[in-house]
Amino acid sequence: MFTHHHNNQEQKNQSPVDYHKKEKHHKHTEQLGQLGAVAAGAYAMHEKHKAKKDPEHAHSHKIKEEIAATVAVGSAGFALHEHHMKKEAKKHAHGHRHHRH
């Protein structure tokens, strides 16, 4: 049957994890999530403006606005998730140690 790609047995047989590469990957996907949030938010604002200017089709514009706003929130959530994944990879990549002063 199908196995999940993060299976512990598979990880034991693979080479060590490159945390610098993972950190860079999560940084890029975080930035894509941020870009998606900004773009969807801008589109939502655009549709809100069109709803005011085009009362005949206001309902259609309002629906598009709400969908775009939902996409913006989801994209921002994804960016936040990737931010935490990046921090986790960075912690591993830089050998997170407790420094005592």
Explain what you see.
By secondary structure, this protein is mostly helical. The chain has helices at residues 8-13, 19-53, 58-93. Helix 2 (19-53) runs antiparallel to helix 3. The protein is rod-shaped. It comes from Rhynchospora pubera. Residues 1-61, 78-101 are annotated as: Disordered. This is Abscisic stress ripening protein. Residues 31-44 have a biased composition (Low complexity).
Q: Which residues sit in consecutive blocks of at least 5 with pLDDT less than 50? A: none
> Helix count?
3
Cα radius of gyration in angstroms: 21 Å
Order of helices and strands: HHH
Q: How does the overall form come out from the CA principal axes?
A: rod-shaped
Structural class: mainly alpha
Helicity level: over 70%
Largest sheet entry: none
Query: Strand content of the residues, in percent?
Result: under 5%
Average of pLDDT: 87
Beta strands, count: 0
Q: How far apart, in Å, are the first and last alpha carbons?
A: 53 Å
